[in-house]
Design goal:
Elements lengths: L6 E5 L4 H12 L3 E6 L2 H13 L3 E6 L5 H15 L4 E4 L10 E3 L6 E4 L2 H29 L3 E6 L11 H23 L5 E8 L12 H9 L9 H13 L6 E5 L12
Parallel strand pairs: 1-2, 1-4, 2-3, 4-7, 7-8, 8-9
Antiparallel strand pairs: 5-6
Helix pairs in contact: 1-7, 3-4, 4-5
The chain binds nicotinamide-adenine-dinucleotide.
The site of nicotinamide-adenine-dinucleotide (NAD) has 30 residues, from helix 1 and helix 4.
Length: 264
């Protein structure tokens, strides 16, 4: 699809990867709608895109809230008349091991609180589901063609210290095949579904990681650096433009080989 003139809704579009996707899509001539929890950051990104000659709107929205996701999609339609690209990008981490032991006694010292498990599932998994559902139902009803894009992660292969996060990211990477299959069953042929799995990307989310672990992981990256958000945005552009890309996941990791071990 040609990006110029499309309407793109991006959750978590006020920071990091989502912000970069919003800027890239707007620069290509899409009308961009950002849904995010951070009102100040939403305003900043919308203002900057608009001042650069692009078209953008922002909505304060929590992806875990059904009504917020409906309102976000309604706002996109009200502002720009359609929805063509839906990027389920908002995501969080809350890292920790399930069982933590005392170094001296070997006995359990601490366990991962269920709140830390549920919080990540709620944002990354339920939030992505609601984003896709509320976007897709309007696209189907109005026969608006387009693509649903989930932001997964290379950690879908299983990263120690991220049982919650990795569980959500492996799940959303399955959705392109599931949803493209469901759309086939229902005779919906004009909405593609893709996921993109970044490696470690230089964004604020990484501040929540153990920095020693991050440094060790970066040494396993073939290109020996973090991926830039603009490199993920370039993959989103490719996914929108290439009509043959469907029911699949694209990894953009800089060559993350885990040469030695996943346990850092
Ligand atoms: N940075 C990385 O290394 C990396 C790697 C792989 C995948 N990812 C994924 O990319 C996506 C974006 O991550 P990022 O690195 O840009 O993070 P980020 O922290 O820079 O941005 C995340 C954005 O999501 C918003 N957000 C958080 N919870 C929300 C909610 N409940 N409702 C609405 N908005 C919410 C935040 O306000 C923020 O603007 C996430 O899904 C993340 O898991 C990131």
């Amino acid at each position: 699809m040609e990006i110029k003139g499309l309407v793109a809704v991006i959750t978590g579009g006020a920071s990091g990867i989502g912000e970069s996707i919003a800027r890239e899509m707007a620069a290509e001539g899409a009308k961009v709608v950002i849904g995010d929890l951070d009102q100040v950051a939403v305003n900043r990104v919308v203002t900057e895109i608009t001042e650069a000659g692009g078209q953008a709107a922002g909505v304060l929205a929590n992806v875990t809230d059904e009504n917020d996701m409906a309102k976000l999609m309604q706002a996109a339609v009200a502002a720009f008349g359609a929805i063509n690209v839906v990027v389920a990008n908002a995501g969080v981490i809350r890292d920790g091991v399930m069982i933590n032991t005392d170094k001296e006694t070997g006995k359990v010292r601490k366990v991962m609180p269920v709140e830390d498990f549920r919080f990540v599932l709620d944002v990354n998994l339920v939030g992505a589901f609601l984003t896709f559902r509320e976007g897709a139902r309007r696209m189907v009803d109005n026969r608006w063609p387009g693509v649903l894009i989930a932001v997964s992660s290379i950690n879908k292969t299983g990263q120690v210290g991220q049982i919650n996060y990795s569980s959500t990211k492996v799940a959303v990477a399955l959705w392109p095949k599931i949803l493209a299959g469901e759309f086939m069953m229902k005779g919906i042929h004009n909405i593609r579904v893709v996921s993109i799995s970044p490696g470690y990307v230089a964004t604020p989310i990484l501040a929540g990681m153990d920095q020693n672990a991050l440094a060790a992981i970066t040494r396993d990256v073939h290109i020996q650096r973090l991926v830039q958000p603009s490199e993920i945005a370039a993959a989103v552009k490719f996914a929108v433009e290439n009509d043959a890309l469907d029911a699949t996941d694209i990894e953009v990791t800089g060559g993350l080989c885990y040469a030695k071990s996943r346990a850092k």
